[in-house]
Amino acid sequence: MSSAEPGAGDDPARRPSLPAEEVTDPTLRAEVDNPADANVPTGAEAAPGGGTSAADAPPLPAAGAPAELSSEQTPPQGQQRGAAGPDQGLADVAGGDAGSPESSGHTGTDPPVPAAPANPPPVQGGATVPEQPPATPRAVAAEGALARQAKAEQADQAAEAAAGAGLGEEPDPGLDQPRRDLVERLGTALDGGVLDVHIVPGVDVWVRVGIDHWHRAFEVCRHHLGLTYFDFLSAIDWLPSPFGRSEDTGTDEDAGADDRAAGPGGPGELEHGVTGGSTRFQLLARLVSPTSHLGLTLKADVDDVELRAPTVSDLYPGADWHERETWEMYGIDFVGHPNLVHLYLPGAFEGHPLRKDFPLLAREVKPWPGLVDVEAMPGEAEAASS
Amino acid sequence: MGLIERGKLPKPLSHLLGLSRSYSLWVYQWGLACCAIEMGACFGSPRYDVMRLGVIPFPVSPRQADLVVVSGTVTDKLAPALRRLYEQMPEPKYVISMGSCANSGGPYWDSYSVTKGVDQIIPVDVYVPGCPPRPEALLEGIVMLQQRIRDEDMAERWKGDPIVVG
Q: Shortest Cα distance from B116 to chain A (angstroms)?
Protein backbone atom coordinates (compact mmCIF):
# COMPACT_ATOMS: atom_id res chain seq x y z
CA MET A 1 0.00 0.00 0.00
CA SER A 2 2.76 2.32 0.86
CA SER A 3 4.25 1.41 -2.44
CA ALA A 4 1.63 3.35 -4.25
CA GLU A 5 3.76 6.35 -4.98
CA PRO A 6 6.23 5.09 -7.42
CA GLY A 7 7.25 8.50 -8.57
CA ALA A 8 8.42 9.65 -5.17
CA GLY A 9 11.97 8.45 -5.32
CA ASP A 10 12.44 8.69 -9.01
CA ASP A 11 14.81 10.90 -10.80
CA PRO A 12 12.77 13.61 -12.44
CA ALA A 13 15.31 13.84 -15.22
CA ARG A 14 14.12 10.56 -16.64
CA ARG A 15 10.59 11.63 -17.23
CA PRO A 16 10.93 13.87 -20.23
CA SER A 17 12.39 10.90 -22.08
CA LEU A 18 9.28 8.85 -21.51
CA PRO A 19 8.16 7.22 -24.73
CA ALA A 20 4.79 8.48 -25.70
CA GLU A 21 3.36 5.07 -26.43
CA GLU A 22 3.95 3.93 -22.90
CA VAL A 23 1.79 6.46 -21.29
CA THR A 24 -0.89 6.22 -23.86
CA ASP A 25 -1.36 2.66 -22.71
CA PRO A 26 -5.02 2.31 -21.66
CA THR A 27 -4.16 1.11 -18.17
CA LEU A 28 -2.05 4.11 -17.58
CA ARG A 29 -4.61 6.44 -18.95
CA ALA A 30 -7.13 4.99 -16.59
CA GLU A 31 -4.67 5.34 -13.83
CA VAL A 32 -4.16 8.92 -14.66
CA ASP A 33 -7.80 9.66 -14.80
CA ASN A 34 -8.83 7.85 -11.71
CA PRO A 35 -6.85 9.75 -9.11
CA ALA A 36 -7.52 12.95 -10.86
CA ASP A 37 -11.16 12.37 -10.09
CA ALA A 38 -10.50 11.36 -6.55
CA ASN A 39 -8.44 14.34 -5.64
CA VAL A 40 -6.18 16.78 -7.21
CA PRO A 41 -2.76 16.25 -5.71
CA THR A 42 -2.69 12.50 -5.92
CA GLY A 43 -3.63 12.87 -9.50
CA ALA A 44 -0.60 15.00 -9.82
CA GLU A 45 1.66 12.38 -8.44
CA ALA A 46 -0.10 9.63 -10.28
CA ALA A 47 0.67 10.86 -13.72
CA PRO A 48 4.42 10.84 -13.45
CA GLY A 49 4.43 8.06 -10.92
CA GLY A 50 2.56 5.58 -13.03
CA GLY A 51 4.54 6.53 -16.04
CA THR A 52 7.89 6.12 -14.41
CA SER A 53 7.06 2.86 -12.78
CA ALA A 54 6.17 1.46 -16.14
CA ALA A 55 9.35 2.79 -17.61
CA ASP A 56 11.64 1.95 -14.76
CA ALA A 57 10.42 -1.39 -13.60
CA PRO A 58 11.79 -3.48 -16.44
CA PRO A 59 15.40 -2.38 -16.17
CA LEU A 60 15.48 -2.97 -12.47
CA PRO A 61 15.96 -6.72 -12.46
CA ALA A 62 18.83 -6.32 -14.81
CA ALA A 63 20.45 -3.57 -12.86
CA GLY A 64 20.07 -5.47 -9.63
CA ALA A 65 20.62 -9.17 -9.25
CA PRO A 66 20.03 -10.81 -12.59
CA ALA A 67 17.46 -13.51 -12.30
CA GLU A 68 19.29 -16.78 -12.48
CA LEU A 69 17.39 -19.39 -14.34
CA SER A 70 18.04 -22.62 -15.94
CA SER A 71 17.07 -22.85 -19.52
CA GLU A 72 15.42 -26.16 -18.94
CA GLN A 73 13.14 -24.81 -16.32
CA THR A 74 12.04 -21.52 -17.74
CA PRO A 75 12.68 -21.09 -21.40
CA PRO A 76 10.30 -18.18 -21.93
CA GLN A 77 12.24 -15.48 -20.33
CA GLY A 78 9.81 -12.69 -20.93
CA GLN A 79 7.34 -14.16 -18.50
CA GLN A 80 9.90 -14.53 -15.84
CA ARG A 81 10.91 -10.95 -16.21
CA GLY A 82 7.40 -9.72 -16.36
CA ALA A 83 6.73 -11.39 -13.04
CA ALA A 84 9.91 -10.23 -11.44
CA GLY A 85 9.93 -6.75 -12.82
CA PRO A 86 7.02 -5.10 -11.09
CA ASP A 87 7.83 -6.73 -7.80
CA GLN A 88 11.29 -5.41 -7.77
CA GLY A 89 10.16 -2.13 -9.09
CA LEU A 90 7.61 -1.69 -6.40
CA ALA A 91 9.91 -2.87 -3.70
CA ASP A 92 12.41 -0.37 -4.82
CA VAL A 93 9.88 2.34 -5.00
CA ALA A 94 8.57 1.48 -1.59
CA GLY A 95 12.02 2.10 -0.27
CA GLY A 96 11.96 5.50 -1.82
CA ASP A 97 8.56 6.15 -0.35
CA ALA A 98 9.86 6.94 3.09
CA GLY A 99 8.92 10.52 2.58
CA SER A 100 5.44 11.83 3.23
CA PRO A 101 2.83 12.05 0.51
CA GLU A 102 3.18 15.77 0.56
CA SER A 103 6.77 15.66 -0.46
CA SER A 104 5.99 13.16 -3.12
CA GLY A 105 3.30 15.49 -4.32
CA HIS A 106 5.96 18.09 -4.77
CA THR A 107 8.38 15.95 -6.60
CA GLY A 108 5.57 14.55 -8.64
CA THR A 109 4.20 17.82 -9.82
CA ASP A 110 7.40 19.61 -10.59
CA PRO A 111 8.75 17.73 -13.56
CA PRO A 112 5.67 17.52 -15.74
CA VAL A 113 5.22 21.23 -15.71
CA PRO A 114 7.66 21.90 -18.47
CA ALA A 115 6.90 18.61 -20.15
CA ALA A 116 3.18 19.11 -20.43
CA PRO A 117 3.07 21.54 -23.29
CA ALA A 118 5.78 19.70 -25.14
CA ASN A 119 3.94 16.43 -25.55
CA PRO A 120 0.27 16.72 -24.87
CA PRO A 121 -0.87 13.21 -25.77
CA PRO A 122 1.29 11.17 -23.40
CA VAL A 123 0.87 13.27 -20.33
CA GLN A 124 -2.71 14.04 -20.68
CA GLY A 125 -3.13 13.61 -16.98
CA GLY A 126 0.02 15.56 -16.53
CA ALA A 127 -1.40 18.36 -18.54
CA THR A 128 -3.89 18.93 -15.83
CA VAL A 129 -1.21 18.72 -13.24
CA PRO A 130 0.38 22.10 -13.60
CA GLU A 131 -2.88 23.67 -12.65
CA GLN A 132 -2.76 21.95 -9.30
CA PRO A 133 -1.01 24.04 -6.73
CA PRO A 134 1.81 21.96 -5.31
CA ALA A 135 1.16 23.27 -1.84
CA THR A 136 -2.28 21.78 -1.37
CA PRO A 137 -1.70 18.00 -1.23
CA ARG A 138 -1.20 17.94 2.50
CA ALA A 139 -4.90 17.98 3.16
CA VAL A 140 -5.76 15.05 0.97
CA ALA A 141 -3.03 12.68 1.96
CA ALA A 142 -5.25 10.25 3.79
CA GLU A 143 -7.85 10.31 1.13
CA GLY A 144 -5.27 9.48 -1.45
CA ALA A 145 -4.49 6.17 0.21
CA LEU A 146 -7.29 4.32 -1.47
CA ALA A 147 -6.42 5.77 -4.77
CA ARG A 148 -2.81 4.77 -4.25
CA GLN A 149 -3.78 1.21 -3.61
CA ALA A 150 -5.65 1.13 -6.84
CA LYS A 151 -2.71 2.67 -8.53
CA ALA A 152 -0.38 0.04 -7.23
CA GLU A 153 -2.34 -2.62 -9.02
CA GLN A 154 -2.49 -0.59 -12.12
CA ALA A 155 1.19 0.06 -11.96
CA ASP A 156 1.70 -3.67 -11.89
CA GLN A 157 -0.33 -4.08 -14.98
CA ALA A 158 1.41 -1.22 -16.66
CA ALA A 159 4.82 -2.59 -15.87
CA GLU A 160 3.81 -5.98 -17.08
CA ALA A 161 2.47 -4.55 -20.25
CA ALA A 162 5.64 -2.60 -20.78
CA ALA A 163 7.84 -5.61 -20.12
CA GLY A 164 5.71 -7.81 -22.28
CA ALA A 165 5.91 -5.36 -25.12
CA GLY A 166 9.68 -5.39 -24.86
CA LEU A 167 9.91 -1.77 -23.86
CA GLY A 168 12.58 -0.44 -21.63
CA GLU A 169 16.33 -0.86 -21.90
CA GLU A 170 16.73 -4.32 -20.54
CA PRO A 171 19.89 -5.96 -21.85
CA ASP A 172 18.61 -9.48 -21.50
CA PRO A 173 16.69 -9.98 -24.71
CA GLY A 174 19.60 -8.80 -26.75
CA LEU A 175 22.30 -10.74 -24.96
CA ASP A 176 20.67 -13.81 -23.66
CA GLN A 177 18.97 -15.21 -26.69
CA PRO A 178 22.31 -15.84 -28.37
CA ARG A 179 23.44 -17.80 -25.32
CA ARG A 180 20.27 -19.79 -25.39
CA ASP A 181 20.81 -20.51 -29.04
CA LEU A 182 24.37 -21.47 -28.35
CA VAL A 183 23.35 -23.99 -25.75
CA GLU A 184 20.58 -25.30 -27.89
CA ARG A 185 22.84 -25.86 -30.85
CA LEU A 186 25.40 -27.52 -28.64
CA GLY A 187 22.78 -29.75 -27.12
CA THR A 188 21.47 -30.73 -30.53
CA ALA A 189 24.91 -31.52 -31.81
CA LEU A 190 25.87 -33.55 -28.77
CA ASP A 191 22.65 -35.49 -28.83
CA GLY A 192 22.09 -35.97 -25.16
CA GLY A 193 25.60 -35.22 -24.05
CA VAL A 194 24.58 -32.05 -22.26
CA LEU A 195 23.76 -32.92 -18.67
CA ASP A 196 23.05 -29.53 -17.20
CA VAL A 197 22.95 -25.92 -18.22
CA HIS A 198 23.17 -22.81 -16.15
CA ILE A 199 22.56 -19.43 -17.69
CA VAL A 200 22.88 -16.12 -15.97
CA PRO A 201 21.09 -13.86 -18.42
CA GLY A 202 23.34 -11.30 -19.92
CA VAL A 203 26.35 -12.63 -18.04
CA ASP A 204 27.49 -16.11 -18.82
CA VAL A 205 26.56 -19.69 -19.43
CA TRP A 206 27.85 -22.95 -17.99
CA VAL A 207 27.29 -26.30 -19.64
CA ARG A 208 28.06 -29.64 -18.09
CA VAL A 209 28.58 -32.44 -20.53
CA GLY A 210 29.37 -36.07 -20.07
CA ILE A 211 33.02 -36.93 -20.13
CA ASP A 212 32.36 -39.09 -23.17
CA HIS A 213 31.18 -36.01 -25.01
CA TRP A 214 34.05 -33.83 -23.83
CA HIS A 215 36.02 -33.92 -27.04
CA ARG A 216 32.95 -33.76 -29.22
CA ALA A 217 31.73 -30.70 -27.35
CA PHE A 218 34.97 -28.88 -28.12
CA GLU A 219 34.74 -29.93 -31.71
CA VAL A 220 31.24 -28.55 -32.01
CA CYS A 221 32.21 -25.35 -30.26
CA ARG A 222 35.16 -24.76 -32.50
CA HIS A 223 33.82 -25.78 -35.85
CA HIS A 224 30.13 -25.01 -35.58
CA LEU A 225 29.54 -22.49 -32.83
CA GLY A 226 32.38 -20.12 -33.62
CA LEU A 227 33.96 -20.37 -30.18
CA THR A 228 37.43 -20.39 -31.61
CA TYR A 229 39.25 -18.71 -28.78
CA PHE A 230 40.46 -21.07 -26.09
CA ASP A 231 40.61 -19.29 -22.78
CA PHE A 232 41.64 -21.88 -20.25
CA LEU A 233 41.24 -25.44 -19.12
CA SER A 234 41.53 -26.57 -15.56
CA ALA A 235 39.89 -28.74 -12.98
CA ILE A 236 38.11 -28.46 -9.66
CA ASP A 237 38.56 -30.73 -6.69
CA TRP A 238 35.26 -30.63 -4.83
CA LEU A 239 36.54 -32.59 -1.89
CA PRO A 240 36.17 -30.64 1.35
CA SER A 241 39.58 -30.06 2.79
CA PRO A 242 40.53 -33.00 4.98
CA PHE A 243 42.81 -30.70 6.90
CA GLY A 244 40.02 -28.62 8.32
CA ARG A 245 39.84 -24.91 8.35
CA SER A 246 42.17 -23.36 5.96
CA GLU A 247 42.40 -20.55 3.52
CA ASP A 248 39.70 -22.13 1.42
CA THR A 249 36.89 -21.58 3.85
CA GLY A 250 37.40 -18.11 5.22
CA THR A 251 35.16 -18.90 8.16
CA ASP A 252 35.55 -20.57 11.46
CA GLU A 253 33.81 -23.69 10.31
CA ASP A 254 35.85 -26.77 10.02
CA ALA A 255 35.10 -27.85 6.50
CA GLY A 256 36.70 -31.23 6.83
CA ALA A 257 35.33 -32.27 10.20
CA ASP A 258 32.62 -34.47 8.78
CA ASP A 259 35.01 -36.19 6.48
CA ARG A 260 37.44 -36.92 9.23
CA ALA A 261 34.60 -38.31 11.30
CA ALA A 262 33.55 -40.46 8.37
CA GLY A 263 36.97 -41.93 8.22
CA PRO A 264 40.30 -41.18 6.71
CA GLY A 265 40.29 -40.59 3.02
CA GLY A 266 36.54 -40.69 2.68
CA PRO A 267 35.34 -38.20 0.17
CA GLY A 268 32.32 -37.35 2.26
CA GLU A 269 29.57 -35.37 0.69
CA LEU A 270 30.60 -33.30 -2.22
CA GLU A 271 29.04 -29.98 -2.87
CA HIS A 272 29.15 -29.00 -6.48
CA GLY A 273 28.80 -25.75 -8.31
CA VAL A 274 26.14 -24.29 -10.52
CA THR A 275 25.72 -27.12 -12.96
CA GLY A 276 25.90 -29.86 -10.40
CA GLY A 277 28.02 -32.91 -10.64
CA SER A 278 28.52 -36.34 -9.23
CA THR A 279 32.24 -36.86 -8.94
CA ARG A 280 35.09 -35.40 -6.99
CA PHE A 281 36.97 -33.94 -9.93
CA GLN A 282 35.44 -31.75 -12.54
CA LEU A 283 37.10 -30.45 -15.63
CA LEU A 284 36.22 -27.01 -16.77
CA ALA A 285 37.23 -25.08 -19.80
CA ARG A 286 36.22 -21.76 -21.19
CA LEU A 287 35.79 -20.97 -24.83
CA VAL A 288 35.01 -17.59 -26.30
CA SER A 289 33.88 -16.39 -29.66
CA PRO A 290 36.08 -13.55 -30.82
CA THR A 291 33.36 -12.22 -33.08
CA SER A 292 30.26 -12.33 -30.91
CA HIS A 293 32.21 -12.11 -27.64
CA LEU A 294 30.07 -14.82 -26.17
CA GLY A 295 31.76 -17.21 -23.82
CA LEU A 296 30.90 -20.70 -22.75
CA THR A 297 32.23 -22.63 -19.81
CA LEU A 298 32.24 -26.35 -20.37
CA LYS A 299 32.36 -28.71 -17.44
CA ALA A 300 32.59 -32.44 -17.19
CA ASP A 301 32.75 -34.93 -14.36
CA VAL A 302 35.83 -37.08 -14.31
CA ASP A 303 35.36 -40.61 -13.17
CA ASP A 304 36.57 -41.13 -9.62
CA VAL A 305 38.42 -44.29 -10.42
CA GLU A 306 39.64 -43.66 -13.91
CA LEU A 307 40.95 -40.14 -13.77
CA ARG A 308 41.23 -39.53 -17.44
CA ALA A 309 39.77 -37.41 -20.16
CA PRO A 310 40.34 -37.09 -23.87
CA THR A 311 42.72 -34.37 -24.86
CA VAL A 312 41.44 -31.38 -26.75
CA SER A 313 44.86 -30.14 -27.71
CA ASP A 314 44.29 -31.46 -31.21
CA LEU A 315 41.42 -28.99 -31.58
CA TYR A 316 42.86 -26.15 -29.57
CA PRO A 317 46.65 -26.22 -29.54
CA GLY A 318 46.54 -23.73 -26.70
CA ALA A 319 45.06 -26.41 -24.49
CA ASP A 320 48.36 -28.27 -24.54
CA TRP A 321 49.99 -26.58 -21.58
CA HIS A 322 46.70 -26.24 -19.73
CA GLU A 323 46.25 -29.97 -19.86
CA ARG A 324 49.79 -30.52 -18.75
CA GLU A 325 49.18 -28.29 -15.79
CA THR A 326 45.91 -29.98 -14.96
CA TRP A 327 47.60 -33.31 -15.25
CA GLU A 328 50.36 -32.49 -12.82
CA MET A 329 48.23 -30.49 -10.41
CA TYR A 330 45.26 -32.88 -10.21
CA GLY A 331 46.53 -36.12 -11.64
CA ILE A 332 43.96 -36.22 -14.41
CA ASP A 333 45.30 -38.09 -17.37
CA PHE A 334 44.66 -36.66 -20.80
CA VAL A 335 44.46 -39.44 -23.28
CA GLY A 336 46.07 -38.59 -26.57
CA HIS A 337 48.09 -35.67 -25.30
CA PRO A 338 51.33 -35.42 -27.25
CA ASN A 339 53.65 -34.41 -24.43
CA LEU A 340 52.24 -35.05 -21.01
CA VAL A 341 55.20 -34.10 -18.85
CA HIS A 342 55.65 -31.74 -15.94
CA LEU A 343 55.19 -28.12 -16.79
CA TYR A 344 55.52 -26.16 -13.58
CA LEU A 345 56.71 -28.69 -11.11
CA PRO A 346 60.22 -30.07 -10.91
CA GLY A 347 60.49 -33.38 -12.66
CA ALA A 348 60.89 -35.38 -9.50
CA PHE A 349 57.89 -33.89 -7.77
CA GLU A 350 55.59 -36.40 -6.17
CA GLY A 351 51.90 -35.84 -5.66
CA HIS A 352 49.35 -33.48 -7.09
CA PRO A 353 49.51 -30.25 -5.19
CA LEU A 354 46.15 -28.77 -6.09
CA ARG A 355 44.26 -31.74 -4.76
CA LYS A 356 42.53 -30.90 -1.55
CA ASP A 357 44.11 -33.81 0.25
CA PHE A 358 47.64 -32.80 -0.71
CA PRO A 359 49.37 -32.03 2.57
CA LEU A 360 51.31 -28.82 2.89
CA LEU A 361 54.20 -30.16 4.86
CA ALA A 362 55.18 -26.82 6.27
CA ARG A 363 51.81 -26.65 7.95
CA GLU A 364 52.31 -30.00 9.52
CA VAL A 365 55.23 -28.47 11.35
CA LYS A 366 53.83 -25.06 12.03
CA PRO A 367 50.19 -23.95 11.77
CA TRP A 368 49.44 -21.29 9.29
CA PRO A 369 50.07 -17.99 11.05
CA GLY A 370 47.79 -16.05 8.76
CA LEU A 371 44.72 -16.94 10.81
CA VAL A 372 43.97 -14.87 13.84
CA ASP A 373 43.43 -17.82 16.12
CA VAL A 374 45.25 -20.78 14.82
CA GLU A 375 43.42 -24.04 14.78
CA ALA A 376 44.90 -27.20 16.06
CA MET A 377 46.55 -29.17 13.34
CA PRO A 378 45.61 -32.76 12.68
CA GLY A 379 47.09 -34.78 15.46
CA GLU A 380 47.27 -31.93 17.89
CA ALA A 381 43.58 -32.06 18.62
CA GLU A 382 43.71 -35.70 19.57
CA ALA A 383 46.79 -35.13 21.64
CA ALA A 384 45.15 -32.26 23.49
CA SER A 385 41.91 -34.15 24.20
CA SER A 386 43.55 -37.30 25.38
CA MET B 1 99.60 -11.81 -6.58
CA GLY B 2 100.94 -14.96 -5.19
CA LEU B 3 101.31 -13.09 -1.93
CA ILE B 4 97.59 -12.59 -1.76
CA GLU B 5 96.81 -16.21 -2.27
CA ARG B 6 99.25 -17.23 0.40
CA GLY B 7 97.84 -14.64 2.74
CA LYS B 8 101.05 -12.73 2.98
CA LEU B 9 99.94 -9.42 1.59
CA PRO B 10 101.05 -6.48 3.69
CA LYS B 11 98.25 -4.97 5.67
CA PRO B 12 98.10 -1.58 3.90
CA LEU B 13 97.95 -3.26 0.55
CA SER B 14 95.30 -5.64 1.70
CA HIS B 15 93.23 -2.70 2.91
CA LEU B 16 93.65 -0.93 -0.39
CA LEU B 17 92.66 -3.96 -2.34
CA GLY B 18 89.56 -4.45 -0.24
CA LEU B 19 88.64 -0.83 -0.69
CA SER B 20 88.93 -1.01 -4.45
CA ARG B 21 87.01 -4.25 -4.64
CA SER B 22 84.19 -2.85 -2.60
CA TYR B 23 83.77 0.05 -4.98
CA SER B 24 83.77 -1.91 -8.21
CA LEU B 25 81.10 -4.47 -7.67
CA TRP B 26 79.60 -5.72 -10.86
CA VAL B 27 76.17 -6.83 -9.85
CA TYR B 28 74.09 -9.39 -11.66
CA GLN B 29 70.37 -8.80 -11.31
CA TRP B 30 68.45 -11.97 -10.65
CA GLY B 31 64.97 -10.56 -10.48
CA LEU B 32 62.26 -13.14 -9.99
CA ALA B 33 59.19 -11.37 -8.70
CA CYS B 34 57.88 -8.05 -7.48
CA CYS B 35 61.13 -7.34 -5.64
CA ALA B 36 62.70 -7.01 -9.06
CA ILE B 37 60.72 -3.83 -9.57
CA GLU B 38 62.29 -2.31 -6.51
CA MET B 39 65.65 -3.60 -7.57
CA GLY B 40 65.13 -2.03 -10.97
CA ALA B 41 64.30 1.26 -9.31
CA CYS B 42 67.42 0.99 -7.25
CA PHE B 43 69.77 -0.03 -10.03
CA GLY B 44 68.22 1.60 -13.02
CA SER B 45 66.92 4.96 -11.94
CA PRO B 46 68.83 8.19 -11.38
CA ARG B 47 66.85 8.77 -8.23
CA TYR B 48 68.73 6.14 -6.28
CA ASP B 49 71.78 6.01 -8.52
CA VAL B 50 73.50 2.91 -7.33
CA MET B 51 76.58 3.67 -9.40
CA ARG B 52 77.62 6.38 -6.99
CA LEU B 53 78.43 3.50 -4.67
CA GLY B 54 80.60 1.92 -7.29
CA VAL B 55 78.09 -0.78 -8.04
CA ILE B 56 77.82 -1.44 -11.73
CA PRO B 57 74.65 -3.25 -12.75
CA PHE B 58 75.75 -4.11 -16.28
CA PRO B 59 77.35 -7.53 -16.46
CA VAL B 60 76.04 -9.47 -19.41
CA SER B 61 76.63 -12.77 -17.77
CA PRO B 62 77.19 -14.13 -14.29
CA ARG B 63 80.73 -14.93 -15.38
CA GLN B 64 81.53 -11.24 -15.22
CA ALA B 65 79.74 -10.54 -11.98
CA ASP B 66 81.05 -10.11 -8.47
CA LEU B 67 77.66 -9.88 -6.82
CA VAL B 68 74.25 -11.33 -7.52
CA VAL B 69 71.08 -9.91 -6.05
CA VAL B 70 68.44 -12.58 -5.77
CA SER B 71 65.23 -10.61 -5.57
CA GLY B 72 61.99 -12.51 -5.59
CA THR B 73 60.47 -15.90 -5.12
CA VAL B 74 62.78 -18.80 -5.74
CA THR B 75 60.91 -21.95 -6.58
CA ASP B 76 62.18 -25.48 -6.34
CA LYS B 77 62.08 -25.69 -10.07
CA LEU B 78 64.31 -22.66 -10.42
CA ALA B 79 66.70 -23.64 -7.67
CA PRO B 80 69.05 -25.69 -9.86
CA ALA B 81 69.39 -22.79 -12.28
CA LEU B 82 70.22 -20.47 -9.43
CA ARG B 83 72.82 -22.88 -8.19
CA ARG B 84 74.37 -23.06 -11.63
CA LEU B 85 74.39 -19.29 -11.88
CA TYR B 86 76.26 -19.04 -8.63
CA GLU B 87 78.77 -21.63 -9.72
CA GLN B 88 79.46 -19.70 -12.89
CA MET B 89 80.45 -16.57 -11.03
CA PRO B 90 84.17 -16.05 -10.45
CA GLU B 91 85.57 -15.84 -6.96
CA PRO B 92 85.33 -13.78 -4.89
CA LYS B 93 81.55 -13.67 -5.23
CA TYR B 94 78.86 -12.28 -3.05
CA VAL B 95 75.13 -12.77 -2.77
CA ILE B 96 72.43 -10.45 -1.53
CA SER B 97 69.09 -12.02 -0.79
CA MET B 98 66.44 -9.38 -1.28
CA GLY B 99 62.93 -9.63 0.08
CA SER B 100 60.99 -12.00 2.25
CA CYS B 101 60.60 -14.68 -0.39
CA ALA B 102 64.28 -15.01 -1.08
CA ASN B 103 65.11 -14.79 2.61
CA SER B 104 62.73 -17.41 3.92
CA GLY B 105 59.94 -18.16 1.51
CA GLY B 106 58.02 -15.19 2.85
CA PRO B 107 54.29 -15.43 2.38
CA TYR B 108 54.81 -18.70 0.55
CA TRP B 109 56.42 -20.45 3.45
CA ASP B 110 53.93 -23.31 3.23
CA SER B 111 53.81 -23.56 -0.52
CA TYR B 112 54.50 -26.82 -2.26
CA SER B 113 56.70 -25.14 -4.79
CA VAL B 114 58.63 -22.32 -3.17
CA THR B 115 62.13 -22.73 -1.80
CA LYS B 116 62.15 -21.64 1.81
CA GLY B 117 65.06 -19.31 1.58
CA VAL B 118 67.69 -18.97 -1.07
CA ASP B 119 70.35 -19.78 1.50
CA GLN B 120 69.37 -23.40 1.10
CA ILE B 121 70.85 -23.23 -2.37
CA ILE B 122 73.72 -20.77 -2.19
CA PRO B 123 75.53 -18.95 0.61
CA VAL B 124 74.15 -15.51 1.28
CA ASP B 125 76.13 -12.51 2.53
CA VAL B 126 73.41 -9.98 3.18
CA TYR B 127 69.71 -10.42 3.76
CA VAL B 128 67.52 -7.45 2.93
CA PRO B 129 64.14 -7.82 4.62
CA GLY B 130 60.91 -6.42 3.28
CA CYS B 131 58.02 -7.36 1.09
CA PRO B 132 59.29 -5.87 -1.06
CA PRO B 133 62.10 -3.80 0.42
CA ARG B 134 62.34 -0.22 -0.65
CA PRO B 135 65.26 0.68 -2.89
CA GLU B 136 66.87 2.44 0.04
CA ALA B 137 66.86 -0.84 1.91
CA LEU B 138 68.72 -2.50 -0.92
CA LEU B 139 71.17 0.38 -0.99
CA GLU B 140 71.80 -0.13 2.69
CA GLY B 141 72.33 -3.80 2.08
CA ILE B 142 74.90 -2.95 -0.56
CA VAL B 143 76.68 -0.57 1.78
CA MET B 144 76.78 -3.28 4.42
CA LEU B 145 78.19 -5.70 1.91
CA GLN B 146 80.86 -3.21 0.94
CA GLN B 147 81.81 -2.83 4.56
CA ARG B 148 82.07 -6.56 4.79
CA ILE B 149 84.30 -6.71 1.75
CA ARG B 150 86.59 -4.07 3.16
CA ASP B 151 86.88 -5.83 6.47
CA GLU B 152 87.33 -9.25 5.08
CA ASP B 153 90.53 -11.21 5.30
CA MET B 154 91.24 -11.85 1.69
CA ALA B 155 93.64 -14.63 2.31
CA GLU B 156 90.96 -16.59 4.05
CA ARG B 157 88.44 -15.72 1.44
CA TRP B 158 90.57 -16.60 -1.53
CA LYS B 159 91.67 -19.84 -0.12
CA GLY B 160 88.20 -21.02 -0.96
CA ASP B 161 86.90 -21.65 2.51
CA PRO B 162 83.14 -21.53 2.79
CA ILE B 163 81.63 -18.19 3.58
CA VAL B 164 79.98 -17.81 6.91
CA VAL B 165 76.42 -16.96 6.10
CA GLY B 166 74.96 -14.13 8.09
A: 10
